[in-house]
Automatic annotation (TrEMBL):
PROSITE patterns per UniProt: TH1 (PS51757)
Full protein name: MYO1H protein
Gene behind this protein: Myo1h
InterPro entries, per the entry: Myosin_TH1 (IPR010926)
A molecular function GO annotation: cytoskeletal motor activity
Amino acid sequence: FLMQTSEMLRKICMRNLVRKYCRGLTAERKVQLQQKVVTSAVFSGKKEGYLESLSQPFLETRLKENDLNPKVLQLIRGENIKYVTPVIKYDRNGFKARERLLVLTQSSAYVVEMAKIKQKIEYSTLKGISTSNLSDGIVVIHVPEDNKQKGDVILQCEHVFETVTKLCILANKQSLVKVVKGSLRFRVGSGKEGTMVFTVGPEPQVFKDKTGQLTVV
């Protein structure tokens, strides 16, 4: 009887502690925890660097709305900007690296160059999001084959766990995130495909190899 009473009191105490903790959470902290739960579901046990990322809080955004060019703000007016981060975009053909911004709104993702919108991806049309299982920050956003899109978007993000989590939550496409090993295929445009190869080496680098593939070390 004493054992049963002790166990019952222990459970009641635990529930009270949990209730007190939950009531004491700020709105910002609740959002953090909700996002980290999604990150865990997508990356836990799949991508290198995940465990190290646990102790790093996600920022609401890496750049403020007023850091964007006024022309860009004018073009996406009416959309609620949720997240902005600097990225490196790789051309789909020559794989030249270009500095860009990734802007996530409530309904679309934009790849931005200074005062120009280079590509717009509506979340409703997004076909998938791919990353490798290694510690690189490569993210491929897969888009539909239509005249509106030039092909899949190849990005390198410094805060890859944060960026992918924000994107899949806003797009409500958590199930479409794939963590791949070895290589992945991406659409170049006009029905053509390219291959990206992931490997391990002494120093990080991204380059076009002799076979024309994009190699990520």
